[in-house]
Amino acid sequence: MIIQFTPLIVLMLISGTVSAVLTIIGWRNRANPISRPFILLMAAETVWIYGYALEMMSTQLSTVLFLNNIEYPALLTVPVAWLFVVMCYTGREQYLTRRTVPLFFIVPALIYLIVVTNQYHYLYYSGFHVETVNGSVIWIYDHGPLFLLTIAYCYAIALIALTLAGGKLFGTNALYRNQTILLFSAATIPALCNMLYVFRVAPFPDYDLTPIAFLITGIVLAVGILRYQLFSAVPVAYSRVFATMRDGVIVVDRKNSVIDINPAAERITGYTSHAAVGRNITELIPLLKAVTDLPAGEDGERRIELHLPYDSTPHYFDVLLTPMNERGTGSSGYLYLFRDVTERKQAELALSRANRNISLLTSITRHDLNNKLMAVRSYIDLIREISTDPTQLEYLDQEEHAVHAMREQIEFTREYQQLGAESPVWQEVNAVIRRAQTHLDLQTVNLENTTGTLEVFADPMLEKVFYNLFDNALKYGGDQMTALQVSFYRGGNEIVLVVEDNGTGIPDKDRNRLFERGFGRNTGLGLFLSREILAITNIAIEENGSAGRGARFEIRVPPGKYRLRGNEK
């Protein structure tokens, strides 16, 4: 056998080596579903390219035909493998099973049988002739009718693959769009070169440059692997996610007509997709008419809780209405998301019933204890009227003090029971202070309030916080106290509310224990309760005054828990 060598063969060998390296890379990433067809593709390309390089090196027709028969199965595998790659990339790998994959190779197998038996019918290659190009001998294949049918078949498969991949150019993020562009390029370049060879188009009508094009394809795919995570980040098929979601999803247009519904939503509504599509969503679930009347959030979202029959039993669903826009989703309309919260709701209802029972029990107990204490107080008063013994009177004073402390403890349980009973709300601090002030006798103390239009998000018992702070100042501020002031300032991204007086202040030794339960001259419950009320919405309180110069309580309101109406301070 005479061997010839041309610079073009060097490019062929380089291209084959690149394909072999990509085959190894694919093998190392074989855990990823897309890697398996990629390995098949690169391996087939490697055999095809090396086989064609050996063809170009040979001058004898028998050797050329022998090498052609070896490389042809790989050549026929390439378009099918490309289709497999695209199917996996677009989330359709469920169609590639042990039963279905062999079906894709029935036509290539028949074509290969025709190729190896060509000498008996000459329908694939009608003849062969030799040409000399730049001193090199090249055997030219004259194509028969079955060859053209084979080319049409291969191009059809390539077109299907490109069509499937084209869907990923729209509605996906930049990473997946770049991946798709790379796959497009990797598939299109060899196809164009092959068309130039088949139709004998200049500048190289006698050479099949398709294997050379695979060198460019290999470089493009290498960029995809290294730069755009071709193996590690493969887009998920949204249709599959949509179908397998446990939450019900209904997509509607601007007129609230159903345009898509997933299986979970079919079970919730009792309508199949065939029956639901085209109907107004309120026909499926009449209770959803109330959603449009709800105030929309910043993103236009609305949320409602519905009690719907499901699986023959009532269920609770948290329904989220989200507007879609053409830029983000490829369509314009709304998305209804139904999340089953039955277990959580049942737990909440059970807890609510338990709380009501506890509240009823504590209310009855508190009422009975107050009645008993009133009776004890009456007996103490009666004994005091008839007793003249100083020791007995001293004992009566201690008993009366104990009764008073017990009544304060009972009152505290009533107030503490209300803590967190209602959801936090936005409250204007100025109005809260005015309400608290009405329950106090300030006498000669001047209360200055400069909180303006400040609002805070806090428990409805916020009024009790200011009442306790004012009441403590009046009780323990001393005769020198003449002023109470409430103001605020910005401390970083916080708002700091300041309640201060010009009284005697808090001793340094007591400051660290000031908010402990039971610490203080009386019950020690007022400041403890105030701290608990504020903590519900993560508002902190501390005392930073100076002994002898007055008390100074600072209430730190975190971001998102305050706002200013009108002009900001």
Query: Overall pLDDT, averaged?
Result: 81
Measured on Cα atoms, how large is the radius of gyration?
A: 42 Å
- Going by CATH, the architecture of the largest domain would be Up-down Bundle
CATH H-level superfamily title of the largest domain? Rhodopsin 7-helix transmembrane proteins
Sheet-strand content, in percent, reads 15-25%
Protein traits:
5-stranded mixed beta sheet; Beta-Lactamase; 51% helix; 569 residues; Rhopdopsin 7-helix transmembrane proteins; 4 domains; 5-stranded antiparallel beta sheet; alpha+beta
Structure notes:
It is a single chain. This protein folds into 4 domains: 7-227, Rhodopsin 7-helix transmembrane proteins (Rhopdopsin 7-helix transmembrane proteins), CATH 1.20.1070.10; 238-340, PAS domain (Beta-Lactamase, 2-Layer Sandwich); 347-418; 425-564, Histidine kinase-like ATPase, C-terminal domain (Heat Shock Protein 90, 2-Layer Sandwich), CATH 3.30.565. Mean pLDDT is 81; it is low at 326-331. The chain has helices spanning 7-28, 35-57, 61-89, 106-116, 118-121, 145-166, 174-198, 210-227, 238-244, 263-269, 273-276, 281-284, 326-329, 342-386, 390-418, 429-437, 462-476, 508-511, 526-535, and strands at 125-133, 136-143, 248-252, 258-261, 302-310, 313-324, 333-340, 425-428, 446-449, 454-458, 483-491, 494-501, 540-543, 552-557, 562-564. The N and C termini lie far apart (95 Å). The chain has 569 residues and is α+β, with helices and mostly antiparallel strands. 51% of the residues lie in helices and 17% in strands. The strands form 4 sheets. Strands 4-3-7-6-5 form a 5-stranded antiparallel beta sheet.
